[in-house]
From TrEMBL, chains A, B:
This is NADH:ubiquinone reductase (non-electrogenic). The lineage of its organism: Bacteria, Pseudomonadati, Bacteroidota, Chitinophagia, Chitinophagales. Residues 2-323 form the FAD/NAD(P)-binding domain. Belongs to the NADH dehydrogenase family. Keywords: FAD, Flavoprotein, Membrane, NAD, Oxidoreductase, Transit peptide, Transmembrane, Transmembrane helix. It is an enzyme of class 1 (oxidoreductase).
């Protein structure tokens, strides 16, 4: 039995591991710094208190049960020792025959140190819980303060990045301001802050169709969100989001939903990396300059796919398909058959805006908006949640939230030691 | 309108506040350092990953909606200034006409500094999440270590305190060791640790009937829990729980579920406190030596109730009844009628052991055990959960957990900065 070590249990890693479950040629160990897989497309709903963390996450060990060749190891990759075929983790070492990087991407602050220090990222489950706690605490402070200027800063939210996450968060927060906050914070007497959505390109959801972009812009503005297109946040100083247009917006909440970057690992040759620190691979996802190392998902830059000469978009569908594809290739190799090159099948994209609007593009040229797109979105996301129980819970949460225009997860749960200010 | 300030939103505070909801004589502000009420009898289920934190907690602001005289303030009490009728909070000041302490009790380490530093408390929702994360991380370490001795320490759990919490936690962990851990951690190959339950008195659940005590001891032992009665933990040094019997148990997990203490507040005269730092009150819950300050629940020591000359037990029922009773007295005072003295009506007590056993004493002399007691326990706790939605979710979680002998909340969700070891 050969040892496959997978670093990272996101879409790519988990699909690779599960597709090899029960295989008699490979023993698969998945290494992750968390003990659970989570579903990134819905972390904005955890951040806005619609869903519980547990509704969109699932322990690896439970996923791997009954598959006797699948193992989980809690740990963080520190170094690869190519000559010895081993990885050094934060808590030990592992030998591999094949090593697979499925390490995804992390928030990119583009070197803006003030932003990195004070903005709210939206990439991990813990980011989402932090955002929830922080926004709720700021509401409480807004009630106490006697300073009008301070209150405005506490209630104003600037979202950098008009991709799906930015659009979804801004829509959700705008809905919340209308329906829930007015009921929960009567002390504010209608003094609610503004929500700004800032994006560097000329449209929201820039990879989507023009039609969907127009629909999205219209829907977001209708919800009261102020948009700033062709504009970037260039600094964040003294509670002031400074835009490159010259405008400055006073806010205590800058949500950073723009830009991601892959990571560089000790032991991997420098010329194995391409644009955005992504690992350059051949058509079989093998990393350039290595013999038994592979990369899949966001961290992989593969330019052999005819339709995507600059590499694939860093989206869930690519990661899922690459994970499953690499599993097939491993099986082929074990059977003495040649591996097949990877080709991405675009299944379309969608985003949800506020309570019951969405946009969806289905290739080659179908566009949906409004309620139909909303149901499409619900269906696709619900089906993608990793197990039945999470689906049921999420459907229940959504149904209650939809009809009650409310959500009840507004608890600030944090370590006791954190002082109140 | 007179101002009532309630410090603390546990059973006592929340029942007082809600009973005054809509009253036209009083404006009520509840101050708490959390923005949610939670249900302490079930935190052991959060700790053992059966329930989500949100299933047993509820935001104050949502509870107070539609009651225009009820307000919530996030903050911590720093000082009372009696002469000025004001409280100084961590984030501002509030004036009161009546001040009510419903501050509950906190974990008592009896001066054992090593225990305070390294043991796992079981009093707050955050304690419960911490315990969950810590036990799960130790399981992961147990798999990695090559050191037999170290593995035994990682897998052994000592629970100090044989009250309901200790009994419930030990039963739950014993069940988990049997059913879940073997499936999730095949690497351990049956090398599971022991669970010890240590109590200073001669029986478990010492305030309950002898019959229930006997049944509990029997049930707990059947689950494989090792009991040490008439024994106390006197120190915790180098991963070694040192008992006063001379025995020492190597363990990385000492769960501290024994002993609580009330708290002393700056500004309240020293002679207003009695045993266990509880505030001495008259029959109307007015604190000795003050004119407009009251204490209810665990923090109150009232010796005027004929059946309880040494004060009431520090249990949920007393807190609930005192909260409601004080509300009636406030209403009486507003109407010019005299207040009534408090008298506690004991509704019985119960505890659950493992998956489907429980004991219940209903006064004057009814005892139940086994399945009937289990259903009684389910019914009473479900009815006590604060709103319908939490009840439904909890019932669902319990049903799934019961039939699947499993629970799925085994995610270690913690700040990214915390390093893995």
């Amino acid at each position: 039995m050969k040892d496959i070590i997978i670093i990272g249990g996101g879409f790519a890693g988990i699909n690779l591991a599960r597709s090899l479950g029960g295989n008699k040629h490979y023993r698969v160990t998945l290494v992750d710094k968390n003990n659970y897989n989570f579903f990134p497309p819905l972390i904005y709903q955890v951040a806005t208190a619609f869903l519980e963390p547990s509704s969109i996450s699932y322990p690896f060990r439970k996923l791997f049960r009954h598959k006797h060749n699948l193992f989980f190891r809690l740990g963080e990759l520190k170094k690869v020792v190519l000559e010895e075929n081993k990885v050094v983790l934060s808590n030990g070492e592992l030998h591999y025959d094949y090593l697979v990087f499925a390490t995804g991407a992390e928030t990119n602050y583009f070197g803006l140190q003030n932003v990195k220090k004070h903005a709210i990222p939206m990439k991990t489950l813990h980011d989402a819980i932090d955002m929830r706690n922080r926004l709720l605490q700021q509401m409480e402070q807004a009630i106490i303060t006697q300073d009008e200027e301070e209150r405005r800063k506490l209630l104003t939210i600037v979202i950098a990045g008009g991709g799906p996450t930015g659009v979804e968060v801004s829509g959700m927060l705008a809905e919340m301001g209308r329906s829930i906050l007015q009921k929960d914070y009567p002390e504010l007497k209608g003094a609610y802050g503004e929500i700004y959505l800032v994006d560097g390109s000329e449209a929201l959801l820039s990879p989507m169709s023009e039609k969907s972009q127009r629909n999205t812009l219209e829907a977001v503005r209708k919800l009261g969100v102020k948009t700033r297109l062709n504009t970037r946040v260039k600094d964040y100083v003294d509670d002031m989001a400074i835009l490159d247009s010259g405008e400055s917006i006073p806010t205590k909440s800058l949500i950073w939903a723009t830009g991601i970057t892959a990571r560089v690992f000790d032991g991997i040759p420098a010329d194995s990396y391409g644009r955005g620190k992504r690992m350059l691979t051949d058509a079989f996802n093998q990393v350039q300059g290595t013999t038994n190392i592979y990369a899949i998902g966001d961290t992989c830059l593969q330019t052999t796919d005819a339709k995507f000469p600059n590499g694939h978009p860093q989206v869930a569908q690519v990661a899922i398909q690459q994970g499953k594809h690499l599993a097939r290739n491993f099986k082929a190799m074990a059977a003495g058959r040649p591996p097949a090159p990877f080709a991405y099948h675009d299944k379309g994209s969608m985003a949800i805006i506020g309570r019951n609007k969405a946009v969806a593009d289905l290739p080659p040229s179908l566009h949906f908006k409004g309620f139909i797109a909303f149901f499409l979105w619900l269906f696709v996301h619900l089906m993608s949640l990793i197990n039945y129980r999470n689906r049921l819970k999420t459907l229940y949460n959504w149904t209650v939230a939809y009809f009650s225009r409310d959500q009840s997860l507004r608890m600030i749960i944090r370590p006791d030691e954190e002082n109140l200010t």
